[in-house]
């Protein structure tokens, strides 16, 4: 492996990490339309809560509609990304596993609520017009917490 190849690998991994972080930042401001541009046209998103399949969206339009409907339930959204490990990388495809903690606030019957998700994402990416896009995301909601917020 040459220094040039090593540098290129580092730059590609950084670009993938920026894609993941951009997704989270856009979720925090509920800019789902902009999130849609991070996916391929035929992307697939599958979610599992504690091993049980809960949703599946195929295609960018379905993903945007599904994310919009979900985020409409919450007042505040906060993502904190953690580990990010690229497990396969070619010139045009990549796979990665990464972790995220999500905090969501809402109000139910006049009571402020907090929902927290601890998620492991398994992503597949493709390079389109020299930009990385999410082609498939499998979301594993490993831990779910719900509780009242103190005012």
From TrEMBL:
Pfam families noted in UniProt: SnoaL_4
Domain SnoaL-like intervals: 9-138
Stretches of the chain forming a coiled coil according to its record: none
Protein's name according to its UniProt entry: SnoaL-like domain-containing protein
Organism lineage string: Bacteria, Pseudomonadati, Pseudomonadota, Gammaproteobacteria, Pasteurellales
């Amino acid at each position: 492996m040459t220094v040039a190849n090593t540098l290129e690998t580092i730059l590609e991994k950084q670009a993938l990490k920026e894609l993941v972080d951009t997704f989270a930042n856009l979720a925090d401001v509920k800019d789902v339309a902009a999130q849609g541009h991070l996916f391929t046209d035929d992307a697939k998103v599958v979610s599992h809560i504690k091993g049980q399949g809960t949703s599946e969206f195929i295609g960018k339009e379905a993903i945007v509609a599904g994310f919009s409907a979900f985020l409409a339930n919450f007042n505040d959204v906060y993502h904190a990304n953690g580990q990010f490990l690229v497990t396969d990388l070619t010139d045009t495809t990549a796979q990665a596993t990464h972790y995220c903690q999500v905090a969501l606030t809402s109000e139910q019957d006049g009571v402020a609520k907090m929902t927290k998700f601890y998620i492991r994402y398994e992503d597949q990416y493709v390079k389109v017009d020299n930009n990385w896009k999410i082609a498939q995301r499998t979301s594993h909601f490993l831990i779910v917490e719900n509780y009242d917020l103190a005012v």
